[in-house]
């Protein structure tokens, strides 16, 4: 459809013999499809991500909009294993007790206070009513 399409980047008519189509309805001049953050050309060799009408390279999209570790604030890669506590997500190596630094493993009991993870030994007894009723140890 050269000559009929309007470029989502510059708004001009695409008269070129080639155009780049992103998602089903956005078409771009080959020269206009660039990362809105770093300016890297985005073509058939580079993955393109859209947000609010702007195109981003994978690195910048992940940095700007991806989920970040609640401890170190770094982004996750697709191969990272993660730990979750409520709505917080952590790298495995960042899932540590804030008091003693011990790494918490799957199955470990812990407490989340504010943004701090605390292991069972460091968070003390649960507040009244928070534990299931049962025999108490002295």
UniProtKB/TrEMBL annotation:
Keywords: Developmental protein, LIM domain, Metal-binding, Zinc. It holds the Pfam family LIM. One of its GO terms (cellular component) is nucleus. InterPro entries: ISL1/2-like (IPR047169), ISL1/2-like_LIM1 (IPR047244), Znf_LIM (IPR001781). One of its GO terms (biological process) is positive regulation of transcription by RNA polymerase II. Residues 5-67, 68-129 form the LIM zinc-binding domain. Its main location: nucleus. One of its GO terms (molecular function) is metal ion binding. It is found in: Nucleus. SMART domains: LIM (SM00132). PROSITE patterns: LIM_DOMAIN_1 (PS00478), LIM_DOMAIN_2 (PS50023). This is ISL2 protein. It comes from Toxostoma redivivum. The gene is Isl2.
């Amino acid at each position: 459809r050269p000559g009929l399409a309007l470029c989502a980047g510059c708004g001009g008519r695409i008269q070129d013999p080639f155009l780049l189509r992103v998602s089903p309805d956005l078409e771009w001049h080959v020269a206009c499809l660039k990362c809105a953050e770093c300016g890297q050309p985005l073509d058939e060799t580079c993955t393109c991500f859209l947000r609010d009408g702007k195109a981003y390279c994978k690195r910048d999209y992940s940095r700007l909009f991806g989920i970040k570790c609640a401890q170190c604030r770094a982004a996750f890669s697709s191969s990272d294993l993660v730990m979750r506590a409520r709505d917080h997500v952590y790298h495995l190596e960042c899932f540590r007790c804030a008091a003693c630094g011990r790494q918490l493993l799957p199955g470990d009991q812990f407490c989340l206070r504010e943004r701090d993870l605390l292991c069972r030994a460091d968070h003390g007894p649960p507040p009244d009513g928070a534990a299931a009723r049962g025999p108490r140890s002295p």
